[in-house]
Specification:
This protein is an alpha/beta fold and about 240 residues long. It is built from 9 helices and 6 strands; from the N terminus they run βαααββαβαβααααβ. The protein has a 6-stranded mixed β-sheet. Helix 5 links the parallel strand 4 and strand 5. Helix 7 packs across helix 9.
Length: about 240
């Protein structure tokens, strides 16, 4: 089935998120209490709610999107390009820009969204943050009433599972075992909050996010047993 998909109909994406506030102390009392309740199972007795707040960006109720990077193929004859761009900064504005992209260029039935662990994280996170920001969901993220086979989402982690629902494989590990050259990253996901709030270096986060989009596309090509993208084929716009 993967071989039948038109690469030009797929929008690859990745998001970066951070906690709503720089620290637990910046939250109002109600939000502090709700965070303590929400995080209780994950942190158990190993961390206090304040210590565990470093990870609050994982939950859409306590985090926010600071970057959405996307990539898409343009194929003309034997020429193949992969164009990468990003929406970043103030959350409401970047969500509006991303929604506009979906509505203007990826709104047909044939169009699909693809991310690594996207079905568990990226797609629902974006949808939840849109609702929280008072936005109507674009068709590609509005899943109510749709049958599973009608949901326009691809997930490279799910594809790698081959039906093994308990299996989790990180994008970095999957790229490594598939022989995809690892880009020289100067950070990882655990550093995003510090780079955003302490270093105020959003451009560094955007570059990291874009690298993950390219890697996701490379994994997808490998799953189709196709040649990997070269540096010359990747265009940042």
């Amino acid at each position: 089935m993967l071989y039948k998909l038109n690469l030009e109909h797929i929008l690859f994406l990745d998001i970066e998120t951070v906690p709503q506030k720089p620290s637990f102390a910046d939250l109002d009392e109600t939000t502090q209490m709700l965070w303590e309740q929400k995080s209780q199972y994950q942190r158990k007795d190993e961390f206090t709610p304040e210590e565990f707040y470093e990870r609050a960006g994982i939950w859409a109720e306590f985090g926010k999107v600071i970057c959405i990077s996307v990539g898409y193929f343009i194929v003309k004859g034997d020429t193949r390009n992969f164009r990468v761009t990003s929406f970043y900064g103030e959350e409401l504005e970047l969500l509006k820009q991303f929604k506009q992209l979906l509505q203007e260029h990826f709104n047909q039935t044939r169009h699909l969204l693809c991310a690594h662990n996207g079905k568990e994280f990226d797609f629902p996170y974006i949808a939840r943050r849109m609702v929280i920001n008072g936005m109507n969901l674009p068709y590609k993220l509005d899943l109510f009433g749709k049958k599973p086979w009608d949901i326009p989402h691809l997930d490279t982690m799910e594809l790698w599972k081959f039906g093994d629902y308990k299996h989790f494989t990180s994008l970095k590990l999957l790229a490594h075992i598939l022989g995809i050259p690892s880009p020289k990253e100067d950070m990882d996901g655990s550093m995003v909050k510090g780079v955003f709030y302490e270093e105020n270096d959003l451009n560094r986060i955007v570059s990291y996010c874009e690298l993950d989009v390219v890697t996701t596309a490379q994994v997808f090509l490998k799953l189709r047993n196709e040649s990997l993208l070269t540096e010359e084929e990747i265009k940042k716009i």
